Each structure stands twice: as structure tokens, then as C-alpha cells.
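Exercise 7 asks you to align residues with C-alpha cells for two separate proteins.
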Amino acid sequence: MTSLFAQEIRLSKRHEEIVSQRLMLLQQMENKLGDQNKEKAPQMQTTETALQRNLSLLKDIEAAEKSLQTQNHPVPPPEVASLETLYWASVEEYIPKWEQFLLGRAPYPIGVENSNEAEDTIQKEVQQ
């Protein structure tokens, strides 16, 4: 019986040691967590400041874009508009001739170099 009693006392002391060690480790964990939070606080403040700065810059850029879009752009002279129209007409005229070549399905369109219909039209338009 005394041996059981001695074993019970030994186990009780061991239990107390484990509980006190557990409490000590929990306290160390809380201290470590507190230190980590203190270290992160300036970083979080820096991040928040950078975020606010970036938002402000983004708003400034959007305002500048809007300002540039709303400015009156001078209408190009009629000659330039006419040349642009003729240019795109020429491009559309040559697309079918070049399309198969560019896709690798046909040989180089030899007749394209000598075909000056669009250029003649442009020159006539400019002279008028």
C-alpha cells in the first residue's frame, strides 16, 4: 500500500511539473506572438501608406486620361481625311492578293508590284 501511495505522490509531482512546464511554454508562445505583432505593426503601416499612395496616383492618372480625352482634338484637314480613306481602300484592295501568300498557301503575288491603280487614284486626288 505504501508503494502505491509513494507512486501516487511521484505521479502527482510529475503532473505538477508537466502542468507548470505547459504554462511556461504557453506564456512563451504568447510573448513570441506579441513580439511578432509588434514587428509587423510598422510593416502594416508602411503597406497601408503605400496602398493609399497608389490609389491616389491611380486617381491622378485616371483624371489625366479623362482630361486628355475631353480636350478638343483638331479635325484633320479634308485632304488628310481623303488620303486616309484612299489608303484604307488601297489596303482593302490588296488584302485578297496578299492573303493567300501570307498564309503560305500561294506564291508571291507578282502582279501586285506593277498594279498602281490605288497609287494613281491617290495622286489624282492629291492633285485636285
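Second protein for Exercise 7:
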Amino acid sequence: MAVLLETTVGDLVIDLYTEERPRACLNFLKLCKVKYYNYCLIHNVQRDFIIQTGDPMGTGRGGESIFCQLYGDQARFFEAEKVPRIKHKKKGTVSMVNNGSDQHGSQFLITTGENLDYLDGVHTVFGEVTEGMDVLKTINETFVDKDFIPYQDIRINHTVILDDPFEDPPGLSVPDRSPEPTKEQLDSGRIGADEEIDDMKGRSADEIEEVEAEKEAKTRAILLEMVGDLPDADIKPPENVLFVCKLNPVTTDEDLEIIFSRFGPIKSCEVIRDWKTGESLCYAFIEFEKEEDCEKAYFKMDNVLIDDRRIHVDFSQSVAKIKWKGKGGQYTKDDFREYENERDKPSKPSSLALKEKVKPKQDAKYDLVLDEDIEESQTSQSHSAKKQKKKKHHHSEDEEEDRRTKKSKDSERKHEGERCREKMKSEKKDRHRSRSRSQERDYPYSKQKDKYRDDFRVRDWDKKADRNRSPKKSKDKERSKYR
């Protein structure tokens, strides 16, 4: 249930839906068997849509079914099979072409696009391409004219039936070999399928070089148009402007204008200079009012000696002075230059400002205020800041006084403790001297007793000192002193 189509650009394998479309498959298989499709032109190629063939005359208006050979002209077409419904969903779907009255003959089409729903119910799907999708792509991308006819012939050279489940109907004559093509079939008026297309054939080396240079220039112009440096790839430079090069650096605009003005009135004469140093770059552009004057200067002034230099003159190829709107058609190059100049200028301080910058608040509205309001707000902020500083200064002085009083009290307490300890030591010595005898008798007992007394006194003194050191009592005492 498959057929191999050998074309001039490659081979295609078509699997047939013999169970769903038995009549259409029978017609197609038997036409292939009798070599009906040999040397048929692919006469309609619509890119990403369809490829149409099957007409032996190559016009798209001919063709007949296999039943015409069996039963005569009354059976030239057969009725379309619409059940079950098969859609044109994918590339490579093969369908019989409708003749306009829901009938089919020999012409068929192959889809080169996906989801072609508008073909459903009109053309009967009976197979699909399973091999040779690259060949299908090549045919899809071929060059065609306005009627979608390829400029170079693409033909079906031969058909091979790989599997045929149908028996040959009675009266079918099968040829022993493929028939030779007729002159009418081969004479399509187009480039032959076997002809090689060579544009440079019969041309000289200079002509070939010129053609290649033109192609290269065209591609560069297209690239500049895509970038936005040219308004159009086919734009031509003005014919009244001369390009003069190999100038002496001392040659000025006035010198060139005086020399070239003898050929006719000059609109402008400009020696191109370095934008930093102002030195001449040794070439210039001269614009005449008339093209005839420009041509005269071109023929007369080439290789002329000016300021001890042999100059070279040619027609200008620059389009820099042509005013045009760039991509989008809204702004010219001059507009962009003005915008860049304004952007580079230092911005002047405006007399208006935003309230949000003066007093940042949450959920604040941006209202415009004058500079006077800003100054008032700044002065009020400065006064409030000064008050806060004064408060902080007074607070810091009070803290320093408190620290000084605390230090002085601590030093007095230390001195009192030392004095108490000295007194206690002196009392101990007196007691030891006066009661030496009693102490000698009852030495261990008296020593422990004195020790306990001394410890008790020291503890009482430490407790008093700790109470006096508490910040609350010290502050109360200081306040009572000042009262």
C-alpha cells in the first residue's frame, strides 16, 4: 500500500489509506501502474500551502481517472469519498484534487503546511508522505512566478508501486516499460529540469567582476538600511556634488571655491577637518547648482596641480546631507543631535521643587512649592535643631556634675574607712599593753573575742557605706543641700 515517486529533485514515498479511501487508492495505484504520471510537471507550488501535479499536459486543467480508460469518457471522473472524514492536519498529506463538482480525476496535491482546515471536505485525503520530507521542502522553496508556476521544471520521472492490494480490473493494459516522453510534454517554455542555471555563462571576466561588485554593494546597502544608516537601499547620491581628495593641508575652502567657480555657481565648498584639532583631512566636497557644471569640473580638474599637490576628483558617493526620517518615521538625524546636545548641557537650578524632597512624609502628596517656602522650612528646621542641641548640652552638664559629686563622696568614704581602721588598731595596741597579764592567762579566748568584735564593727561600717553609696540617697542629700 505504498508508492515511490521519482522526481527530478529527489524521491518521495507515499503511504495510502486503502481501507478508508478504497476507490481513490485504486485509481491512484492503477494510474501509477500504467505509467500515467511519468513526466508530469509539478505545475502549482504555493509555499507553505500545497504542491499540485498529476496533469500530463502541465496546465492544471487536464487529467482523467483510470475508469476513463476502462469505461470510456463518461467515466472520466469519479465521485468523492467523504466518509470517514480525514483532515489536512500535517505536512505531507496527499489528497485528490476536486474538479469543482465533488469529482476527482488524476490530479492530486501534497500539503506543505499544517492545519489547513479549509481544504477539509473539498479535497479527498487518501495518503501521506512518509519518506522524502527534505525533497518536499526543496520543492516548497523553489522560485515561482505570479501564477505559482516554477521557473525551472520539476517533473515526476517514474513511479514504482511498492505494494498493491487491489487486483487489476479487466481490460487494464499495463505497458511493459515506461514510455518515452512526447515533445508536448517536454516543451513547457520554462527552464528544463536538466538544464544548469549559470548567469555568468558567456560573459567576460570584467563583466563577471562588475556583476559581483554590484551584488556586494547591494547587500551592503541592504545591511545599512536594516541598521538605520540609510533611508533606502536603492537611494542614490546627488549627482551635483564632487569629491576632491589628495589635497594639500594648507588648501582652504576659499581657495577651492575660487578655483572651481569658473565651471559654474557653487552652492557649498567644504574641506573636511578634524573635529578636535581643526586640521585638514586633505579631502573636500564641492556642491554645484547644476549637474552640467559638476560634469565639466569632473573632466577638467582631475589630476590638476593645486598647492604643489596632484588632486583626484570623482563624483561623491555620500548621502550624509540628505535629510530623511529614520526608522519609525518620527525623528530626523538633526532632531537626535539637538536632543543629545540638550542632554549634555548642565541643567540649571529651577525655581520650583517638590515638597517631598523638603519634608519626607508617609503618604505625602507631591505638590510644587516655591523656593521661599523651602527657605522658611529650612530655617524652622535649623531652629528646632539648635534647641535640641541646647537641651542635650544642659543634660550632659547635669550628668557631669552628678559624676563629680559621686566621685568626691566615694573618696571621702574611703578616707573615713581608713581612719576607723587606724583607730581600731591603736585601741588594740593599748588593750594589749594594759592587760598583758590577763591576756597571757586567757590568751586564746580573749583573742577570739576581739576578733569577733572587730569583724562585727567592720561589717557594720561596710553596711553603712553601702547604704550611703546608693544613688537614690545621694541624690536626696544633694537636693537637700541645694535647698
